[in-house]
Design the sequence.
C-alpha cells in the first residue's frame, strides 16, 4: 500500500519525487564535477552536555557558557572594509574572478535547479538570492559566482580545504562547527522537526518514534541531537538511528521508498519537502531552536565582517532584500510552520 501511495504521490506532483531520486544519485559525484554557473543544522542534557561543552572549549568553539547557549551570537561586528581575504578574491583574473560558494542544488526553494526554468539549469532559492547579494557587494556583479554543489557532510571540509570561499547551504551555527569554521550573524531561524507519511502513527518527537527507523544526514545537527538524546535516555532505545546519508535529500528518497519510517531535519527544509510530496507531512512542533549562518574559514575575519555588513543592508532593504526573498521562495511553504517571516536580530559577541 505504501508503494502504491508513493507512486500516486509521484504522479500527483509531476515527477518531482523521481527527480529527487535522480538528484540524490547525482549528488554523490557533485564534488568531482562541481556545478559551475555564472548567474543568476542541541545536545542532550546532563553528562553528555558537559562533555560536549568541555570539548568545544578545548577546540576553540564556544569558550563560555553564554556562548554555548547562544552560539549564533558568536560573530564579528559588521564592517565594509576590505582585508586580505577579500583582496585575494578581488585579485582573481578573468573567468576566475568570481566568488566561489558551496551550495545545495537539491533543496526545494532553498538551493535547487528548477526543472521548469526553460532548460537554463540556473540555481534558484532563498540561499541563492543571498549568494548573489554578497557577490554584488564584493565584486560588483551579482552573477560573478562559481557555484559548487556540496553534500551535507562536506560543508566544513570544503571550507577548510579552500575549495570554496564560503558555504551558504541551510547550515546551522553550533559550537562544534565554530571550532572549525567562522560564521556570519544568523540569517534564518528554524528548528528540528519530524517528517513522516500522513498515514503514519508517528506524532512528533516523542515516544511514537519507538520501534521506528529514522533517517538523518551525517554531520547534521539532527543526527547529533538524536544520538545525544538516545544516549541520555530522552529518546527510546528502540528508535533505529542507523540510517544516515551524505546528503539530507537522500532521507526523503528513503522515506518515499519505504526504507525508513520518518526523517528528522530542519523544519524549514522539512516544510519544503512536504510541499514537494503530498503523501508526507510535518509531525509535531519544532523541538530545537537553530539559526542558519554563512560559514567561512576561521581566519577570514575581514570576510566575516563584510558578510555581516551585507546582511545588515539585506535585512533593511524593503524592495530586494531578505523579506522579498522570503516572500518569493518560502512564505507559501512555511506559513503556519516553525519559521517566522522575519530575519533574526543579530548580536556580535566575538571580539577577535
Sequence:
Amino acid at each position: 500500500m505504501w508503494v502504491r501511495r508513493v507512486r500516486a504521490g509521484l504522479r500527483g506532483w509531476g515527477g518531482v519525487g523521481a527527480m529527487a531520486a535522480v538528484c540524490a544519485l547525482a549528488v554523490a559525484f557533485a564534488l568531482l564535477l562541481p556545478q559551475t554557473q555564472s548567474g543568476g543544522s542541541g545536545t542532550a542534557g546532563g553528562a553528555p552536555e558537559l562533555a560536549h561543552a568541555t570539548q568545544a572549549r578545548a577546540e576553540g568553539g564556544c569558550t563560555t557558557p553564554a556562548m554555548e547557549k547562544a552560539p549564533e551570537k558568536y560573530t564579528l561586528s559588521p564592517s565594509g572594509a576590505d582585508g586580505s581575504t577579500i583582496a585575494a578574491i578581488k585579485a582573481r583574473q578573468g573567468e576566475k574572478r568570481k566568488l566561489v560558494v558551496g551550495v545545495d542544488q537539491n533543496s526545494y526553494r532553498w538551493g535547487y535547479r528548477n526543472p521548469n526554468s526553460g532548460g537554463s539549469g540556473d540555481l534558484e532559492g532563498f540561499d541563492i538570492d543571498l549568494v548573489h547579494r554578497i557577490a554584488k557587494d564584493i565584486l560588483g556583479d551579482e552573477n560573478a559566482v562559481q557555484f559548487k554543489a556540496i553534500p551535507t557532510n562536506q560543508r566544513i571540509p570544503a571550507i577548510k580545504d579552500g575549495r570554496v570561499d564560503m558555504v551558504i547551504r541551510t547550515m546551522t551555527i553550533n559550537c562544534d562547527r565554530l571550532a572549525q569554521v567562522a560564521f556570519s550573524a544568523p540569517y534564518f531561524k528554524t528548528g528540528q522537526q519530524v517528517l513522516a507519511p500522513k498515514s503514519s502513527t508517528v506524532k512528533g518527537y516523542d515516544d511514537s518514534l519507538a520501534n521506528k527507523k529514522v533517517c538523518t544526514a551525517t554531520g547534521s545537527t539532527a543526527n547529533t541531537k538524536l544520538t545525544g538524546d538516545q544516549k541520555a535516555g530522552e529518546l527510546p532505545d528502540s528508535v533505529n538511528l542507523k540510517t544516515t546519508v551524505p546528503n539530507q535529500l537522500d532521507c526523503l528518497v528513503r522515506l518515499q521508498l519505504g526504507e525508513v519510517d520518518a526523517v528528522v531535519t530542519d523544519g524549514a527544509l522539512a516544510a519544503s519537502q512536504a510541499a514537494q510530496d503530498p503523501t508526507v507531512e510535518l509531525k509535531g512542533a519544532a523541538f530545537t531552536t537553530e539559526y542558519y549562518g554563512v560559514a567561512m574559514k576561521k581566519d577570514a575575519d575581514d570576510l566575516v565582517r563584510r558578510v555581516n555588513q551585507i546582511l545588515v543592508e539585506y535585512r533593511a532593504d524593503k524592495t530586494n532584500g531578505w523579506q522579498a526573498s522570503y516572500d518569493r521562495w518560502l512564505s507559501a511553504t512555511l506559513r503556519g510552520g516553525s519559521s517566522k517571516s522575519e530575519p533574526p536580530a543579530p548580536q556580535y559577541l566575538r571580539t577577535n
Remarks:
- The CA atoms of residues 165 and 198 lie 40 Å apart.
- The longest strand covers residues 192-197.
- The chain has 14 helices and 15 strands.
